[in-house]
Structures are given as C-alpha cells and as structure tokens.
Amino acid sequence: MKRARSAGIAALTAAIAALLAAASARAGDGAAQRGRAVLEAAGGCTCHSDVKGGGGPLAGGRAMKTPFGVFYSTNITPDPETGIGRWSDSEFVRAMREGLAPDGHAYFPVFPYPSFTGMGDEDVLAMKAYLFSLAPVRRENRPHDAWPPFSWRIAASAWRWMFFEPRRFAPDPARTPEWNRGAYLVEAVAHCGECHTPRTLPGALDRSRWLAGSKDGPEGELAPNLTPDADTGIGLWTKTDIAWFLKTGQLPDGDDTEGLMKEVIEHGYGHLPESDLQAIAAYLHSLPPVRNDALAEHEHGHEHGDESAE
Ligand code: HEC
Fold first, then answer.
1. Helix (H, G, I), strand (E, B) or coil at 291
2. What 3-state DSSP class applies to 244?
3. Distance from the CA of 223 to the center of ligand 1, in angstroms?
4. Domain 169-304: which topology?
5. Which of 173, 189, 170 is nearest to 280 (CA)?
6. Which of 152, 179, 180, 145 has the alpha carbon at shortest distance from 73?
7. Residue ranges, the chain, pLDDT below 70
8. 259: Cβ below 6 Å to ligand 1?
9. Residue-range domain boundaries for the chain
10. Is the minimum distance from the CB of 258 to ligand 1 under 6 angstroms?
11. pLDDT of residue 87
C-alpha cells in the first residue's frame, strides 16, 4: 500500500517535472519567436551576412565600405569560439544599447548602436533568444581596414565618448500609439536613420537633418531623403505607397528597389505586420520636410515632368 503510494507520488512528480520542462521550453520558444520578429524589424541584420563572400547567414565578414575605410561585420551566430555563444544576457544588452563589447572595448559606430540604444531590454533579449536558437557557424572575425585615425581602437572609444549618449526611446504622450510605434521602429529597432540621415564630418548622424538622405550610405550607396519634401523627398508618396514599398520593395512607379534596401526588406521589414508598416508611414509623414539638393539626381518613384531636364 505504502509502496504503491510512493510510486504514485514519484509518477506524479515526474509528470509535473515534464510539464514544467515543456512549459519552459515553450516560453523559450516564445521568446525566440518574438525575437525573430524583432530581428526582422531590425532589417534582418543582413549586414552580418556575407552572402557574396560565401559566408553563412549572420556569420559576419561582410565588408561595409564607409568614408572612413572598410569595416567587417562580426559573427553573431551562437558559435562559442568565433561568434557570440558565450555572451551573457547583460553582455548582449550592453553591446546593443551601449556599444561596448564584453571585453569593454567600444564598437565603431558602423554598428548602429546609437540607434539600438533606444530599444527596450525585452526586445533586445528576445533578439538574443532568437539568435541563440540558430545553428552556430564557425567563422573568425576579420580585422577592419580603416584609415588612421579611424583604424585605431582608441578612436572608437573617443568617438563614443564624444558623440554617444545612451537613451532609451520615450513615447511622446501628445502623439497617438500608432505614431509612437512608428517612431520606436524607425528611430531605434529598424535604424532607418543610420543610412538615411546625413553624417557630420566625424561620422555622427546630423540630427538637424534627420532622415534627409545621405550620399554615404553603407557600401557607398545613396540613401534617399525620407522627409515629406515634395521635390527632394517622398512628399508625394501616400501612406499606402510607403507601407507597400516596405513590404515589397516596389516604388510607386512600379520600379523595384535595389542593393541594401532590397536586402533589408527581403530579410526584414517585408515581414512586419501591416500595422507596423502603417505606423512607420504615419511617422514618416509627420516629419518636417527637409530639402536636400545634394541628392538631386535621385528619383523617388514618382514621375515629375520637370526632372528630365536635370
Ligand atoms: C542599410 C541601409 C538602409 C537602411 C537600414 C534603410 N534604408 Fe531605405 N534605402 C537605402 C538605400 C541605399 C536606398 C536606395 C535604394 C535604391 O536606390 O534602390 C533606400 C531607399 C528607400 C526608400 C525609397 C525612397 C525613394 O525616394 O526612392 C524608402 C521609402 C526607404 N528606403 C525607407 C526606409 C525606411 C522607412 C527604413 C527603416 C524602416 C529604411 N529605409 C532603412 C538604405 C537603407
């Protein structure tokens, strides 16, 4: 009798343990699932995938041409030797939100931590859970090929000290929840400003011309003006035009986007829920229009009769 009862208790304990394990695995899956969505909102982190060079997805080594030299992205797969497999949660959060590696050295701002600093810890940790659910890829990081003084490690610390302030995104209570969601995505997670905002001489984002377009996007690509200026920006695009573009890469005139923008849409923004795409569009529509004649040769997917003269 006693034996039967203790066997029953043992069976019950085992069943409860199995249930708890399943629940925690599900919770883990849940975080990884959410993290996948966060990674997509970040454009899929395609700068870490050296597809042309035959590197695995997210295994780093992709060359990013900048006005300061060539920088190579790092391996962010969970490989313990060459990737981030040994990083703790707090090390990952610190890298994303403060631009510091686990050993304390500062990253060059070609890694867009000045935008990611606005992310909530929950989103950052979900992203880590997703990255850690992927297969580790062994691939050594490659040293940067920048010109002095940008080739000096100390330059990254000096830059960070001069131009960076950790700053979590704070919703504006005077705006709608949709606008705030769009602002959070554009300014922090999706880091649109890192490519679409012109930079000052030392490479900091020129916030007085926020999203007004840049000739020096990564890989030397021209990133157009996203403010609603009718001539040099996307002032003629409707909210639907913007949401459709971010989903499909198709410009209002039917042309397809190319290069980096195509990549971040395919692996990232294109997977966002419609509500997020609309939120981004609402935010972009609310920006003050900024004229940027430096990009005059760029067309914006709307035919203008007078542009052929240029
Ligand atoms: C990695 C750099 C990068 C990031 C990040 C990025 N873009 Fe782009 N974007 C570009 C480049 C480069 C182009 C030009 C592509 C072309 O010429 O086909 C572009 C083109 C566009 C266009 C077309 C504009 C026009 O006038 O033709 C829109 C709209 C746009 N991006 C919106 C966004 C938004 C919104 C985000 C953030 C959610 C974003 N981009 C993030 C690099 C980037």
1. coil
2. helix
3. 6
4. Cytochrome Bc1 Complex; Chain D, domain 2 (1.10.760)
5. 189
6. 145
7. 1-28, 296-297, 303-310
8. yes
9. 30-166, 169-304
10. yes
11. 98
